[in-house]
Amino acid sequence: MRTFIQYAFYPIILGLVFLGCYLGLRWFSKAELIYVPGLCLLFTLPLMITGEFLLMYRKDWDEAKGEFWSDFFSSLVVLPTASKLAEFLIPVLFFYPVIWLVNHDWISLTKYEFSFGVELLLAILASEFFYYWTHRAFHKLKFLWRFHSIHHGAERVYWMNSGRFHFIEAFISGFFYFFPLVILGVSEDVLICVVSISGVTGFVEHINVDFKAGFLNYVFNTAQHHRWHHSIIEKESNRNYGKTLILWDLLFGTFYLPRNKEVEEVGVDENVPHNVVRQFVYPFRKMPKGE
Ligand SMILES: [Zn+2]
Question: Which of 79, 124, 251, 287 is the least crowded, having the fewest Cβ atoms under 10 Å away?
Fold first, then answer.
């Protein structure tokens, strides 16, 4: 029975998100579509939290280390605010290029009259491509790592550290995630689905649930990959950069999912604060010479 639940867990969550998007697009008016991502989370989070109790992956990751409310604030206030700001500022900052591209219908997806499913797939592939390289840059460039180390500073991988990001990183990542969607001129319906799917998969990749995604591990970025991404060992953590998909990791050689081996210690080799206010100033600290 446990094995069955382990394998059913991830497809059920994905199924609920797709169902949520489908029903939202059918039932809601244009003005109400904005509630779809939040509702998808609302219906899937109880399953994830229940899974952390009934199908726990690591007992020591169930113990709070004084970071919960800070992570809660980051996930529900900092990250959504930064993402919304990024989404809003792209057309403002790139006003002329965006208007030009949209007016000339140059790379707009709409002129090809793709079906909704194809447009959604292309939109996810494009935003995931940009996210992949942004995330990789946050690991590889020292200045950017100062911000991203806050996310990796968590000493456990659990549902609420999915949104533990510095405001500036959340803004930059959000900016590059939405950028291709604006340039490609995806429809509002597609945009709502992309945000709904990435919102839920962002939580699922962090949950402390011992689920098995099976062959879906070669399509989606799941907790089975993302735990390795949080490993304290650098050669293990500089892998699996995707957000929703793992495809770009497979293509660019950063896919990592060893068999018969589990991640050991997670976190980083530095004292990252758990308090959201101290986290905000942490990247701007003076570094010792040579660092
Ligand atoms: Zn990372």
Answer: 287
**What are the structure tokens assigned to 156, written together?**
């456990």
pLDDT 10s digits, 37-49:
999 999 999 999 9
CA of 96 to the centre of ligand 1 (A): 33
Asked if residue 187 belongs to a domain, the reply is: yes
Q: Ligand 1 centre and the CA of 169: distance in Å?
A: 11
* C-alpha 145 – ligand 1 centre gap (Å): 9
- This prediction has a pTM of 0.89
Please tell me the total count of domains within the chain.
Answer: 1
Give residue 263's domain range.
2-284
Ligand 1 centre distance from Cα of residue 170 (Å): 12
Q: How far is the CA of 183 from the centre of ligand 1 (A)?
A: 26
